Amino acid sequence: MNLRVYLLAVSAFVVGTVELIVGGILDLIAADLHISVSAAGQFITIFSVAFALSAPILMNLTAKMERKKLYLYALAVFVLANLIVAFSSSYALTLSARALSAMSGSVIIVLSITMASQLVPESHRGRAIGVIYMGISGSLVLGVPIGMVIGNAYGWRAPFLLIVALSLVAMICIALFLQRTEPSPAVPLRKQLATLRSSKLVSGQLISFIMLTGHLTLYAYLAPFVQSNFDISPTMMSVVYFMFGIAAVSGGGLGGLLSDKWGVNKTILLIVTCFSGAMFMMLLAAQASIYVFMAAMMIWGGLSWALSPAQQSYLIKHAPDTVEIQLSLNNSVMHLGIATGSFIGGMVIENSSVANNPWVGGLIALLALGCAAFSISRKPVAANLAAAKRPAASAVGSIAEQV
Fold first, then answer.
1. Structural domains of the chain sorted by starting position, each given as residue range(s) with its CATH number in brackets
2. pLDDT, tens digit, 9 for 90 and up, residues 36-75
3. In the chain, which end has fewer C-beta atoms inside a 10 angstrom radius, N or C?
């Protein structure tokens, strides 16, 4: 594997960590800024919403910019935004800086995926995307414990200063080791919007949204679910989250391997099917010992992020002319799925019991399987067929033909 792929993965990890890093230190932030804990929680909400909405817009506006330069500019804005968060005493300014951090971060994540896929040969393309998603998934599951450890030891601003330092290191490494990458030919906005009329692409995007919605229905409330079934200490609860994190990060790599070996269609269908089954399996595992439960939980956790590499390769294959827009849209729908799943899970608890969250999430995930089967069965759009017949005129076009 090209070492520059791992460099991009580390950069994606640093950026992704910022989203949830405040989750474990909301009380510290609230006390320092003299706001309520719920108001401090808006730092997570504003980040997710800004990330979801800005990614496709910014990728369109920067379509003609050389990609390495754009990457460095986005990292510079990301550093500035987190410096503001680290030193601001104003709630409004901190909230705005969090939105700016998310907007620049969305560009970095999409560029990491597209550039990584261009750095490797056909046989390693799925694995390269899987490595990037190991960084992304790792950041999402490890952000909370990292924030808690550093924030409790040195204050809530310290994690953001660490992020700034790591981002500066990433900038230096990107500047030194990453080659210039020219953008793909600009695609008119009308043609980009036309892809949204493709049932194949729209249903393909919905796979990620629905599966993550089902996943977060349980994952967002994993602690109360575990505590309702087992009498465990806070230390053991930390072990549960740590083990889940290891499984989730490993799942991204596994998904890339399966995508390269079996192809994206079979991989998507297999992972979504197994993931739905794993959520129902959580119900049975919760009736056994904590060790049986943790084994089942790690299977579920690994499958939760195994879909992403195959999903990204699927979009690259079927939308070669608008690949960055499609990938940015996919990242947006993933964040919307996180928000939707958290909301549904909360409604389930409020109206019944947390014991029902696994099967509700499993049923939702089955809808993702329906979307996957529908999308895969649709014929490619005419534009994609034409692109497949043309000689590779660009790096992205070459990717589409090779996947």
1. 1-178 (1.20.1250.20), 194-403 (1.20.1250.20)
2. 876 887 887 788 888 888 887 888 889 889 999 999 999 9
3. N
